[in-house]
User: Which sequence fits this backbone?
């Protein structure tokens, strides 16, 4: 089992995901809805989303190690199933955040041989995807965390 100072690694790393994904989702939503903030934040939402995408499989792997150590139960199986799909949410959040950043960056859009109307459409799609991916990622993290809390403390 992966441990740090005798504590299982999973609950420690999970807290990174639980803080990072909603914080990233908030930044992406603000960037999608407020153009001035989007310009000010630059690539920050995409970088935060990338960190979330990196930390999520670490938490999942540590959780699988902990599951093998503790044994399985229906509550742990439910939590493991919920945790397995968080990577989909963080992956979509990263993709949407990167698209949102690139569609708003003049250095990127000026090099594309696309008409202004196509660039505007891409920007609108990036904003909608950013909000949708943010909501989905936060929900998936919430669901995994809730089932994990039920697995640990019952109820």
Assistant:
């Amino acid at each position: 089992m992966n441990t740090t100072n005798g504590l299982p690694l999973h609950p420690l790393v999970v807290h990174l995901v639980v803080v990072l994904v909603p914080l990233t989702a908030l930044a992406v939503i603000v960037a999608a809805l407020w153009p001035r903030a989007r310009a000010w934040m630059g690539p920050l939402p995409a970088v935060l989303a990338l960190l979330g995408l990196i930390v999520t499989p670490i938490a999942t792997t540590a959780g699988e190690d902990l599951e093998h150590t503790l044994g399985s139960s229906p509550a742990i199986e439910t939590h493991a199933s919920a945790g397995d799909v968080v990577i989909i949410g963080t992956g979509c959040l990263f993709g949407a955040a990167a698209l949102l950043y690139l569609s708003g960056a003049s250095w990127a859009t000026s090099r594309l041989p696309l008409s202004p109307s196509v660039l505007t459409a891409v920007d609108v799609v990036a904003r909608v995807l950013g909000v949708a991916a943010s909501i989905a990622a936060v929900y998936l993290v919430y669901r995994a965390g809730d089932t994990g809390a039920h697995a640990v403390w019952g109820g």
